[in-house]
């Protein structure tokens, strides 16, 4: 275990660890880059044993080749939600790019005596196959499979879920507002971890899942199920009665109405309104029902509603009315 004593006995975290995770193949830095000192993290020096709720996994790579795994980190979530964090260095048997060295602080000297990937995988395999794995994005699964291919071994059949997808479900408002990467989730959820260390990033992915469980009041088993498909009303178009009082008007419906779309379309057509599926320059009325915010990607208004407001701002004479106003409009048209 001298390797791990050496690895985790290092001091200050380099400022470069706050750079983005992605590998920029065109980045140029001097070839004489010295690996920054590895920070001291309180990670286990033995592979965790036992039964866990789930295990988060993260890898760091030596270069732009996704197969060049040089560190594997695990975060094992116990039944009481305590997290055991483990990481190990891996000798990728390939080059180290200066960009990657500055990113995570691992260089060829650090991994000279580390196990090659097949040996590292063998030591982790029982833990990995016995548990559902969480990765933050699809990078880690791709890297593990690519490393298996590089070493000429079969990729194990592992169960994977993505904490990015879980975060999108829990906090849809972050789309277009910083996104669901670990850096933004760290700020949003006030997570405490050191980015670009495999053990720390695995722990962060586990914490994202635990926060999502609490936020949505759903257990992990429900969070990893495919999200139920939303049912949207079928697009309805109908020609208006040319003799109706509102002939020449074009109406579009959006959101959940108290009546069915068919009923609304029939009412509109009887008084002469032509019913269309989408807002265009010909639209004269947009009828807005109650909104299901979970299908609006973090917006408080549907895309039809937002487009109609933009057209109003541009001087287009389109009326945006609620369902009760629509019913009153139809009633008045019938009476006239």
Q: What is the overall shape?
A: elongated
Q: Note the gap between the termini.
A: 90 Å
CATH architecture of the largest domain: 2-Layer Sandwich
What is the arithmetic mean of pLDDT? 84
Query: What share of residues are in beta strands?
Result: 5-15%
Give the uncertain stretches in residue-range form. Answer: 1-32, 292-298
The CATH topology annotation of the largest domain reads as: Nucleotidyltransferase, domain 5
The rounded Rg comes to 28 Å
- Tally the beta strands: 9
Describe this structure in words.
The protein is α/β, with parallel strands linked by helices. The protein folds into two domains: 2-223, 2-Layer Sandwich (Nucleotidyltransferase, domain 5); 250-335, BRCT domain (Rossmann fold), CATH 3.40.50.10190. 34% of the residues lie in helices and 14% in strands. It has eleven helices and nine strands. It has helices spanning 2-8, 98-104, 117-130, 139-151, 163-170, 182-189, 198-216, 220-223, 261-270, 303-313, 323-335, and strands spanning 54-61, 69-77, 83-89, 133-135, 160-162, 250-254, 274-276, 285-288, 319-322. The strands form two sheets. Strands 3-2-1-4-5 form a five-stranded mixed β-sheet, with helices on both faces. Helix 5 packs parallel to helix 7. The longest helix has 19 residues, at 198-216.
């Amino acid at each position: 275990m001298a390797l791990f004593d050496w690895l985790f006995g290092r001091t200050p975290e380099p400022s470069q660890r706050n750079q983005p995770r992605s590998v920029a193949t065109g980045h140029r830095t001097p070839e004489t880059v010295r690996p920054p000192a590895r920070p001291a993290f309180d990670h286990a020096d033995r592979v965790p044993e036992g039964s866990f709720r789930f295990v988060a996994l993260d890898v760091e790579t030596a270069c732009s080749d996704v197969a060049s795994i040089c560190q594997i980190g695990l975060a094992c979530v116990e039944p009481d939600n305590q997290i055991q964090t483990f990481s190990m260095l891996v000798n990728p048997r390939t080059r180290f790019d200066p960009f990657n060295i500055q990113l995570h602080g691992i260089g060829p000297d650090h991994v000279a005596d580390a196990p090659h990937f097949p040996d590292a995988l063998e030591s982790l395999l029982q833990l990995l196959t016995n548990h559902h794995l969480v990765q933050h994005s699809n990078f880690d699964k791709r890297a593990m499979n690519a490393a298996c291919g590089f070493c000429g071994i079969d990729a194990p059949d592992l169960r994977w879920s993505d904490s990015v997808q879980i975060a999108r479900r829990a906090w849809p408002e972050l789309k277009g507002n910083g996104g669901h990467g670990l850096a933004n989730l760290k700020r949003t959820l006030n997570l405490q971890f050191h980015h670009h260390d495999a053990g720390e990033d695995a722990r962060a992915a586990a914490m994202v899942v635990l926060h999502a469980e609490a936020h949505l009041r759903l257990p992990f088993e429900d969070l990893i199920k495919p999200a139920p498909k939303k049912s949207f009303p079928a697009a309805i178009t109908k020609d208006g009665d040319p003799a109706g009082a509102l002939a020449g008007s074009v109406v579009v419906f959006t959101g959940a109405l108290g009546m069915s779309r068919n009923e609304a379309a029939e009412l509109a057509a009887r008084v002469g309104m032509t019913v269309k599926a989408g807002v265009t320059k010909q639209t004269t009325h947009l009828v807005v029902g109650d909104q299901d915010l979970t299908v609006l990607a973090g917006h408080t208004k549907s895309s039809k509603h937002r487009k109609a407001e933009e057209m109003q701002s541009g001087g287009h004479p389109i009326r945006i009315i609620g369902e009760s106003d629509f019913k009153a409009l139809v009633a008045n048209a019938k009476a006239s």
